[in-house]
Amino acid sequence: MSTLVLDSVSRWFGNVVAVNDVSLTISPGVTGLLGPNGAGKTTLMALMTGFLAPSAGTVLLDGQPVWRHTEAYRQIGLVPERELSFGYLTGRQFVRANADLHGLDDAGAATERILGVVDMVEPASRNLDTYSKGMRQRVKIAAALVHDPALLLLDEPFNGVDPRQRMHLMDLLRRLGDEGRTVLFSSHILEEVERLARHIEVVVSGRHAASGDFGAIRRLMTDRPVQYAVTSSDDRALATVLIAQPSVRAVRLRPDSGLDVEVADLGSFAVGLPQWARAHGLTLLDLSPSDESLESVFAYLVNR
Ligand SMILES: Nc1ncnc2c1ncn2[C@@H]1O[C@H](COP(=O)(O)OP(=O)(O)OP(=O)(O)O)[C@@H](O)[C@H]1O
């Protein structure tokens, strides 16, 4: 069982800070690395696998630095986001090439074993060019696992994969985690991460924004202030009623019609709004969230 520890890790490219003072621990089991596009997930994975040197801080696998440490490389498998560019190879040849690169004693047997684990024995004699996206992902996972590493990192493994194959991949990663491997996958989709990860790390704009199980992360995201657009039979009267409520943080009249309402406590607001309207003889005509983008959720987390 392996544990990866990042201690105050930063990485900059010229004056772009891709990763900014990140400290986190990845333990055995499945962890999700959640963040919007450009958050620094790919750079973090490159730092974690020892492909990239930190500009500051350290990345330790079981107490050993991963940068320029070949012993650590034997314990790490990476499934990169980029597509396979060796379409002329068969799945078996591709996995075997990785087994040979690792200098495995019985590269042929290791190749067959891992093709079985990812359920790709039958299509393994076909060229990579002929595979679906999900099959290519499975063969990439086989290549990353052929040397039996304790740590497996996957960069956006579900991107473009159809729902059935996605379930299949999730089952596979869950199984690898249950076996005691340390599995980290990145994603920009909360639902995807929630379904699979026991533990979630959130990164935004290169910074570590939150950490916890999916209940904790979900609570952080639903407890944030939320914007609603509300239209009623008398918006000015409703504004007066709403601003008196502790669950409401701000109310603004829209130029055309309706109100923008910033809600601090979604639960109380959802229960109270129809009651307040009824008590003052007002009719609610429309209620819709106006600020539901994942980017705004992330912006809230990082600015907390
Ligand atoms: N080699 C590089 N040179 C300059 N800037 C870079 C380099 N690599 C990454 N960056 C910048 O660092 C930031 C983080 O990029 P990164 O690819 O790690 O994010 P990401 O979360 O993986 O995003 P995506 O999901 O879109 O790939 C971005 O602003 C990116 O432009």
From TrEMBL:
What InterPro entries is this protein classified in?
AAA+_ATPase, ABC_transporter-like_ATP-bd, ABC_transporter-like_CS, P-loop_NTPase
- A GO MF label: hydrolase activity
Q: Give the enzyme's EC designation.
A: 3.6.3.-
Question: What residue stretches are annotated with the ABC transporter domain?
Answer: 4-230
In terms of Gene3D superfamilies, this protein maps to:
P-loop containing nucleotide triphosphate hydrolases (3.40.50.300)
Alphabetized, the UniProt keywords read:
ATP-binding, Hydrolase, Nucleotide-binding, Transport
- Ranges annotated as spanning the membrane: none
What the record says about family reads:
Belongs to the ABC transporter superfamily.
Among PANTHER family, the record links this protein to: ABC TRANSPORTER RELATED (PTHR43335:SF11), ABC TRANSPORTER, ATP-BINDING PROTEIN (PTHR43335)
Q: What is this protein called?
A: ABC transporter ATP-binding protein YxlF
